[in-house]
User: Fold this.
Amino acid sequence: MPIEKTKWPPVLAVLVLAPWFAEMSWGGYPLTDIPVILLFVGPLYGGAALLIREVARRTGRGWPTIVLLGAAFGVLQAGLVDQSLFNPAYDRYDFQHPVHVDGLDISLYYLLAFVAGHVVASIVAPIAVAECWSRRGSEPWLTRRSRSWVAGVYVLATVINHFGVKDEVGHGFQAEPVQMAAAAAAVAVLVVAALRWRPRPATDVRVPGPLVVAGLGFGAYLLYLPGENAAALVFGVFVLLLAVVVLGTWSRSRRWTADHTVALIAGSVLVGVVVPFWSEPYDDSVGAAQELAADVAAATVCLVIVVSTAYRRRSLRSGASAAPTRRALPRPG
Assistant:
């Protein structure tokens, strides 16, 4: 679908929302660090989200392709770029347990946490919110030239992130060849599955209202990993599979609307209103007062995003319903 110029407002929105949802919506960052983090991580997460969306929209594919490519990005980022999936001493965290797998030296728990987190927060949520605000939500946003710029900036950000993480929090760690090969193979499988995905026939399955869908999105994202142990992993896999089956069934129905999609994503974004207050700060040197200020700011921003997006969706829907009436008026003279 040819476009005359780059749609910069939604593009910039994705570049800001992707790092916000993925990193800062959890709270704990000093407020003065937020601009630097956005500048550092925005081209990385936001660039990936824009390229993934462009592939899906230009090839006429929908959310399943975006989700699968988002999973590929999650494996790429955690397995090959920052290598946190394999690093036994990543900053002050132990990402090797629980449910450690010998040989590859990974934790299945954190494999699920990292990939699912990137799918929802880094890719799907920023795209959905930006599309809601755009009057051309289903169209490509990038020209050939801007695609090249976004791809180049993303590659540069990836290289900087890889070496920056290795020096600052990775303690010089380098994944083994077998680990990198396994991650690369998983990325390749997910990309092929995404590009070979074909739409399924529409159905007339009954779908609950948007508010119910929003509640399910909130609960699933908030509680899909209720602890840090093997039982939590089993529960998380169950929730993930259930979400795939239920949402896959509902979204194929002719009764599923854009309002349901927005409600589902709004539910996941609302997790950022409560999670900051029980999560540990990323920077353990942050004092109690600074942490509270950062948590309140993170929660407030997420709430404002949800409320303003719902209002925007309502305004666009009202405008669309009024447009035929205006065109039907007789021309003067």
Q: What stands out?
A: The first strand starts at residue 100 and ends at 101.
